[in-house]
């Protein structure tokens, strides 16, 4: 394992604090990225499957009926109380997510290996009570390990609906929360962080929501879990190109990975995370626990 020095870039005044997801492209770009990463990869079959899943998420999102907008009073109340306006753990969620789940399964079934057809068929036929129980466990950070094969699909459907809702918000009406490691839109944990490079965003680090694909700026060299800035280090696999690193914190013994757009402009937080599980193993073995989940892999939960 190599350890790299940490550089610090203070946020510039005009850089956006919150980047909302772009509904027309977020899942399509992810699908392409999964396909690219799958080439020659040891886990090629799985990454190709995830690419088809992301493509199905894109199609489902484009076909999604318009969801009722958040009432202005609810948005204002969230602002005043420093709460996320879309609460992922609220008892009620748009029921359309279950329809999206069945659309995703229908898109995957024609390409599914024979061994996974019963699981997909069973999930498509599951009643609302079971589906809501699976969603509740996932969104409360207590996924049912017995449903490890089904939960990535449940997560993918919930991502479609929460991403659609987040994309309809106005970033100017949102604010970062007092807890820097929580999504200002839906209150979920980040899957990973990304150092972005674009005309508007120069080398700033954003945490990427594991559920709604919103990103929020957090200074580099700050632990996403405890907010500390001491005892941090960047780890990478020996000989790797440094496109994905793990930021480890000795204060709380956690880590979160970082992907760098300067190394490749097409990096995708979710896809590049899942294509680098060897790095998770390395830092897990060194005694650090992952601080945020990738919902497409139950075992990656922190
Ligand atoms: Zn979110
Ligand atoms: Zn920490």
In percent, how much strand structure appears in the residues?
A: 5-15%
Terminal Cα span:
21 Å
Whole-number total of structural domains:
2
Rg computed from alpha carbons, rounded to a whole number of angstroms: 19 Å
Named once each, the bound ligands are: zinc ion
Helical residues, percent: 25-40%
Order of secondary-structure elements: EEHHHHHHHEEEEEEHHE
Arithmetic mean pLDDT:
92
The computed structural class is alpha+beta
* CATH homologous superfamily (4th level) name of the largest domain: FdhE-like domain
Largest sheet: 9 strands, mixed
CATH class of the largest domain: Alpha Beta
Q: Point out poorly predicted stretches.
A: none
CATH architecture verdict of the largest domain:
Alpha-Beta Complex
Shape summary: globular
Instruction: Count the E strands.
Output: 9
CATH topology of the largest domain: FdhE-like fold
